[in-house]
Amino acid sequence: MGSSSTFSWPYFYQYPPYFTRQPVKETADRQSSLWGSLILAYCKHHKLYVLSPSEDIPLWVNKDINRRLAPEAAVSFLDDLVAAGSALWLDGGAKLLNALSLSTLCMWESCRAAGSALWLDGGAKPLKASSALWLDGGAKARCLVLWRRLPDVAAAIASWAASYGMADSVMLLDELAAGPEVAGTELEGLHREVLLRALQLLEAQGKVKLFKGATPEEEGVKFL
Question: What is the similarity comment for this entry (predicted)?
Fold first, then answer.
């Protein structure tokens, strides 16, 4: 979903040197901070949640000065946002692991239960040495940008539920992001991963109960 209003680009976007990763740490840190702020502002303005470091969008490509931010630099700036809690790599989801014996192909959960792997939320997943290998190489191709903090999204969901008297009601996650009940509200159009993580915060607070279905489309939430 895009915005009809014109996005206001920051001053540095018109300077070619900012499209090249700077070698001096102090300058590089400043550059990353500027790009991080731009990424968040751009995504918020256009209501974008998922970015690819290699896609052809104005954020990465300034045709006026004939400059393009290299995908490696975009990954670096997104990594800094991830470290700050403002983004998540979606490529870090459930991954298949291949046992080194090659005689047994196991899903990640069985490997984790056996102590052969350890999952962390987002980013790289550390594995015990010689226990398993990533089959996909862990490439960072899709990043979820949290231009709105998850606690703020959770608070908005709780406020909406209270305003509409949703106590003891059950809704599908798809309905909570795109159903008629949320049309015209700040919940409309929420990315599924943002919605799910915000609901998990509310579940930890005892305000909702998440439930799974046979398919992702059947996953839902009960408001308590």
Answer: Belongs to the VPS25 family.
